[in-house]
Write a structure and sequence with these properties.
The chain is of the alpha/beta class. It has a domain at 4-141: UDP N-Acetylglucosamine Acyltransferase, domain 1 (3 Solenoid), CATH 2.160.10. It has three helices and 28 strands. The protein has helices at 196-201, 206-220, 233-243; strands at residues 4-5, 10-11, 16-17, 22-23, 28-29, 34-35, 40-41, 46-47, 51-53, 58-59, 64-67, 82-84, 89-90, 95-97, 106-108, 113-114, 119-120, 125-126, 131-132, 137-138, 143-144, 149-150, 155-156, 161-162, 167-168, 173-174, 182-185, 190-194. Strand 27 and strand 28 (190-194) form a beta hairpin. It is elongated and about 60 Å long. The N and C termini lie far apart (55 Å).
């Protein structure tokens, strides 16, 4: 299908634009940007050099992608990247900064909803099917795993990991890793129960759910979950998650 590009958009000649792409007025597409098929970009957006967008992305007005990292030690002459894969919704005033490393981009995978005024800093990795609610903000080098949900105004310290299917309450200040499948919140922020609704929505039920519930109770006591039976796929993932060295340590339990 034919592209719908406003005459008021400014697009560098080196940009690669796929099919059925729309770009609104006053948006600026810098050099060496790639925009995949069936992507829409609103008005007043800026895509800086070495931004790579996959297919079926919907980007609303006033979004900035690929700007320099907010790192005083960063050499702005470095050729670093942002890579966004497919089927993402990026709402108004979101900012996503390019990486500090020339080897790895700031990366957003697929099927994510990134809501108004959220910020993804340099070198972050955002998995699949994640919801970042309004004004949630990530420091550099944060990793968010699949199906996690960040409540509005969640602030996450650099180098923190948010595990699969974890959920943060609105206004949380997260300075340590969040264990998969857990809900965190209150003040100070702690793990306080399983993310029951999120877990069941993804089809984890019956014996698989009971094992995670047992794992939560064991972890709350500060004990080891490696001997828990039966060894389900989700339990294996949880055990392997703890095998990765944490930069920040883990939030405690209520």
């Amino acid at each position: 299908m034919k592209n719908k590009i406003s005459k008021l958009a400014v697009i560098d000649k080196s940009a690669v634009i796929g099919d059925n792409v729309s770009i609104g007025p006053y948006s600026v597409i810098h050099s060496n940007v790639r925009i995949g098929d069936n992507t829409s970009i609103g008005s007043n957006c800026i895509l800086y050099s070495y931004t790579d967008l996959g297919v079926n992305n919907k980007i609303y007005d006033h979004v900035v992608i690929g700007a320099d990292p907010q790192d005083l030690s960063f050499d702005i002459n470095k050729k670093t990247y942002v890579k966004i894969l497919d089927n993402n919704i990026i709402r108004e005033f979101v900012t996503i900064h390019r990486s500090t490393s020339e080897k790895k981009p700031t990366k957003v995978f697929c099927n994510n909803m990134i809501m108004v005024s959220a910020h993804i800093a340099h070198d972050c990795i955002i998995g699949n099917n994640i919801i970042m609610s309004n004004a949630s903000m990530l420091g550099g080098h944060v990793m968010i795993e699949d199906y996690a949900v960040l409540g509005g105004n969640t602030l996450i310290h650099q180098h923190v990991r948010i595990g699969k299917l974890a959920m943060t309450s609105g206004g949380s200040r997260i300075s340590k890793d969040v264990i998969p499948f857990m809900l965190v919140g209150r003040s100070p922020v702690k793990h306080y129960c399983l993310n029951k609704v999120g877990i069941k929505r993804t089809g984890i039920k019956d014996e698989d759910y009971k094992v995670l519930s047992k794992a939560f109770r064991i972890l709350k006591k500060g004990e080891n979950i490696e001997d828990l039976k039966p060894m389900t796929e989700d339990l294996q993932y949880l055990i392997s998650w703890f095998s990765v060295k944490s930069e920040r340590g883990y939030l405690s339990f209520i």
